[in-house]
Design goal:
heterotrimer, A mainly alpha, B mainly alpha, C mainly alpha, A: two-stranded antiparallel sheet, 2% strand, C: mainly alpha, Helix Hairpins, 3 helices, elongated
């Protein structure tokens, strides 16, 4: 079996989890627990094995040959337009496929334990598998249209999974919010496809690679910006980020899957895949980089004072995605991909660790009610701490290399503003995640309920999410928290190890930039950004590490002992009114709610009265009334009298014969 | 000359009989007028080189069918003069106008010697030889012939079923109530 | 004076029209059925006339079939009439059966 034969099997990568999903949708309930979970995990693990096989096969090919098209059936053919179901296997897509299947399998494995006892266990894993399948379709597609199918599939599954606990009103609303917000971005994707088809006459990536360079700069920029709108929705960049913090209402493995492996990185993938449009004109790239940098900073500040363990991580994800777009925007695509890979590792570990913590403390998500958990959850703590240090950027862990590379590329690409904002975001990153790690695993134990205090009643319709500004509830536990079984600790540890060593993929030294070299065929034609000297690159590293160290030191000083007073957060107190602003994420969500619920709603109502009720409804009503009147008139014809009908038949005959005679006479 | 006389006589009987059918107030008289028409048409058939059809016409129509009519009239006991009032508005003048128009049109069409389509070439009349007709019916038109046989059987079975199972004269009338004679408790029409 | 095909056709036309007028004018269902027989005969007459004019036996075959169909139609029609009269002794004209009115 040679390399191409193996690559021809790439279509199985998305089909395996898809088949798993189909199986579980039909028989998930009958398979029950834990068989349904194992089926789903097995399906995705199989896809992972196939992805590895494809990777090996690709490595066996010469550099420029590393692109293989698996042709499928024609799907749509209208006139000159053809679009098929085909899969493109190249370094970029297979990197993502490995990420989705690898990290995804670990999260599936974790969920087998985490979802224990859930009433909709089978359906959960069916949707989980479908989620992964949709993401794989998105990354492996060989044209924009098929990618859009995956794109929408991801959106649908996110809706289903975020709202998995649909008995909680907050979860149901969050699912709708994610879906609707994504829809705004999807409009951008559609517009981009219209523009691409109008300019190139095809939606195939192959055509795009050839044709994008010849496009006028304005067209390319328009396509790029429309695509970026889509990415902003899917990857939660500022303006369209507001669904992601709410997405925490879903089960924790869902958060992990959304944030680490699937969904949010789709936007980065799309920018990388469609890079010819972004390369064409600097303006589009600048927009991407600036939005990314601002996202990194603003989301970082919003994460500073959150009290919900998952919400900190949610804003952290938004912030980290900002870095990825920052890198893609300045043209450092390989750096963006590198960042995606390492982020997937440590963010998955953080989320799964957080899930374990939530589990162990009896469904508590309040940071203020944790503390000192490292003594009870040593394995989870190890994975979490490794990921924390990696994310913060402690050398030589993976996050250091990735972040350093992004910042260096931004500076050397001649974007000092973006670099500056990114550097500021490094500070917030160091602060918020250290705060979380210290509050959860170190300091004083705040989860013990004093004797005599009754356990709070458990209400399945109330979401455990804790909003900023709410006072802490009673401590949740009267005993010790316990480490869960290996099904849940193993993924955290594996991902934690990945977070530590992930940097080896792309060390910034000539021969060790494995990932960059590997991705070169996918990004041919992109100018490489090189540091003017080794000293300059080292200086950037020193600066960023110093900033991160400062943040770490500050957080250590503030939270070393945990929270002596449960309801007093030292950082929040020190920030004062700014802290409230951060805690409410700059009041953006509130502003949108006020606008949509206020002026926008009134305008819509006015439009509804004027156009809908006054125009369309009246026109429709008039047509209906006309039909009724005509029917009433015609009703007289249906007299039921046989002889009347016969008269009609004969009159018709007479008319037809008369017509024939007239025709004959004329001819 | 013989043909002309024959034609005029047959035509007079045909049209007179036809008018008699629609004018006679007693159904029995109408049926007898119908016999006259059918026989006169049979005469036309003979004149037009269709002796077999003329025979069938007399046997099937003039005897069997008309006897059936008369039998039903007697069975139901409606051999009395019926009222000739017209309950439907404008039905009578409209019907006459349509009939006149139809006559004129068909007559005009008959005056022309135009026919459409090609001849079927299934065989000449050969002076009205029965063999030709028989050969056609039992070769080329065998399939329609068999279908007709089935149709006849179905019609017979259907007729028997309809006449036997039409039920007792119940209070509820499932055949609908005419507007000409409304009954109390009538369900208003949609 | 020779008798031409046209004459037969005109007689057929008149016969047909009289039959049609009868269907429209008479209220007795039995008479309406008889009038339909008149119309069928008018059609048969035309068929036979054309068969002779074109010297083609197919016209006569058609008449043969029409006769059979007419017989079947009378059988079923009369059965329906019997059924109607069984149900309603009082009035059983074509106008009394009007369930299908709109």
């Amino acid at each position: 079996m040679n390399a191409r034969d193996v690559l021809d099997l790439a279509w199985l990568i998305p089909v395996l989890p898809l088949a798993g999903a189909a199986l579980l949708f039909c028989f998930g309930r009958r398979l029950g627990e834990p068989a349904a979970g194992w089926v789903a995990t097995g399906a995705l693990a199989g896809a992972f094995a196939l992805s590895v096989a494809c990777l090996v096969a690709l490595v066996g090919l010469e550099g420029p040959e590393r692109s293989h098209l698996v042709r499928g059936h024609d799907w749509i053919g209208i006139g000159g337009f053809r679009s098929g179901v085909g899969f493109l296997v190249d370094p970029l897509s297979i990197t993502w496929a490995l990420l989705v299947t690898g990290v995804g399998s670990l999260i599936h494995l974790y969920a087998v334990g985490y979802m224990h006892g859930d009433a909709r266990y089978g359906r959960f894993f069916a949707t989980f598998n479908l989620f992964a399948a949709a993401m794989l379709v998105l990354v492996l597609a060989d044209n924009f249209l098929l990618a859009f199918v995956g794109w929408e599939g991801v959106g649908l599954c996110s809706y289903l999974l975020i709202g998995h606990w649909s008995e909680r009103p907050r979860a149901a609303t969050a699912g709708v919010k994610a879906f609707v917000t994504n829809r705004v971005g999807d409009a951008g994707f559609l517009v981009a496809m219209f523009l691409i088809f109008g300019a190139l006459g095809s939606l195939d990536y192959a055509v795009m690679r050839e044709g994008a360079a010849q496009l006028p700069a304005e067209t390319a920029t328009a396509v790029a910006l429309a695509l970026f709108l889509a990415c902003m929705g899917k990857s939660a960049q500022i303006l369209l980020h507001l669904w992601l913090p709410d997405a925490m209402e879903g089960p924790t493995p869902v958060s992990a899957l959304i944030h680490a492996a699937t969904m949010v990185t789709a936007g980065v993938y799309l920018v990388c895949r469609a890079h010819p449009f972004f390369d064409r004109h600097a303006a589009a790239g600048d927009v991407v980089a600036l939005v990314g940098a601002l996202t990194a900073l603003l989301a970082g500040t919003a994460a500073l004072v959150q009290v919900d363990v998952k919400r900190v991580l949610a804003y952290s994800t938004i912030s980290q995605l900002g870095y990825m777009f920052l890198a893609a925007g300045v043209g450092a695509y390989a750096a963006a991909v590198f960042f995606v890979v390492v982020h997937a590792l440590y963010k998955a570990a953080l989320f799964l660790g957080a899930g374990t913590v939530i589990h162990a403390t009896g469904d508590t998500q309040d940071l203020r009610l944790m503390g000192g958990l490292r003594r009870y959850l040593p394995l989870t703590a190890a994975g979490f701490v490794a990921s924390w240090l990696a994310l913060v950027g402690v050398p030589p862990l993976s996050g250091f290399w990735a972040k350093d590379e992004v910042l260096a590329k931004a500076l050397f690409a001649g974007e000092p503003l973006v670099f500056g904002i990114g550097l500021a975001a490094v500070f917030t990153t160091g602060l918020y995640l250290t705060r979380e790690a210290l509050l959860v695993f170190f300091g004083n134990e705040r989860f013990r309920r004093p004797a005599g205090v009754p356990a709070p009643a458990h209400d399945p319709t109330v979401s455990p999410t804790v909003d900023y500004g709410t006072p802490p509830g009673p401590p949740p536990l009267d005993g010790d928290p316990h480490e869960p079984g290996p099904v849940m600790t193993l993924p955290v540890l594996v991902l934690g190890v990945g977070a530590v060593v992930g940097g080896l993929l792309n060390l910034p030294f000539r021969r060790l930039e494995v990932l960059t070299h590997w991705l070169e065929p996918a990004f041919e034609g992109v100018e490489e950004i090189t540091a003017p000297s080794f000293a300059a690159a080292a200086a950037v590293s020193v600066v960023s590490v110093t900033v991160a160290a400062l943040a770490l030191a500050l957080a250590w000083r503030l939270y070393r002992r945990g929270l002596p007073e449960v309801s007093v957060d030292p950082l929040d107190v020190r920030l004062g009114p700014l802290g409230r602003c951060f805690g409410h994420a700059w009041y953006y969500d509130e502003a949108v709610t006020a606008f949509v619920g206020g002026p926008a709603r009134r305008a819509a109502e006015r439009l509804d009265r004027a156009v809908d009720a006054g125009g369309i409804d009246r026109a429709v009503g008039a047509v209906a009334a006309g039909v009724v009147r005509a029917g009433a008139a015609m009703r007289a014809l249906q007299s039921g009298f046989l002889r009347r009908y016969a008269l009609g038949v004969l009159a018709g005959t007479v008319a037809l014969l008369g017509y024939a005679i007239l025709r004959a006479g004329a001819g | 000359m013989v043909e002309l006389v024959l034609f005029v006589l047959a035509a007079a009987v045909t049209l007179g009989g036809a008018l008699g059918v629609i004018i006679a107030r007693n159904p029995v008289h109408a049926a007898l007028h119908l016999v006259a028409v059918l026989v006169a048409v049979a005469v036309f058939f003979v004149m037009q080189q269709a002796p077999l059809l003329a025979a069938v016409q007399v046997i099937v129509y003039a005897s069997a069918v008309v006897v059936l009519f008369l039998f039903v009239i007697m069975l139901l006991g409606i051999d009395r003069r019926e009222s000739l009032t017209e309950p439907l508005r404008h039905q009578r003048p409209l019907a006459i106008a349509v009939a006149v128009a139809l006559t004129i049109e068909v007559a005009v069409l008959a005056g022309h010697t135009w026919t459409t389509g090609a001849r079927t070439q299934q065989g000449t009349l050969s002076g009205g030889a029965v063999e030709v007709l028989a050969e056609n019916v039992f070769t080329r038109y065998l399939w329609p012939f068999e279908v007709l046989a089935v149709l006849l059987v179905v019609a017979v079975v259907g007729g028997v079923t309809l006449a036997r199972h039409s039920g007792e004269p119940a209070g509820a009338d499932d055949l609908g109530e005419g507007r000409a004679a409304p009954e109390p408790g009538e369900v208003p029409g949609p | 004076m020779r008798v031409t095909d046209t004459w037969y056709l005109v007689v057929g036309a008149l016969l047909f029209s009289v039959g049609a007028a009868g269907v429209l004018l008479r209220r007795n269902v039995l008479v309406i059925l008889m009038c339909i027989e008149l119309m069928l005969n008018a059609a048969n007459l035309s068929f036979v006339t054309f068969a002779r004019r074109l010297d083609d036996v197919t016209g006569q075959v058609a008449v043969f079939f029409v006769l059979v169909v007419a017989a079947a139609e009378v059988a079923v029609g009369l059965a329906i009439v019997v059924a109607i009269f069984r149900q309603r002794r009082r009035g059983a004209t074509a106008d009394d059966v009007s369930l299908l009115r709109g």
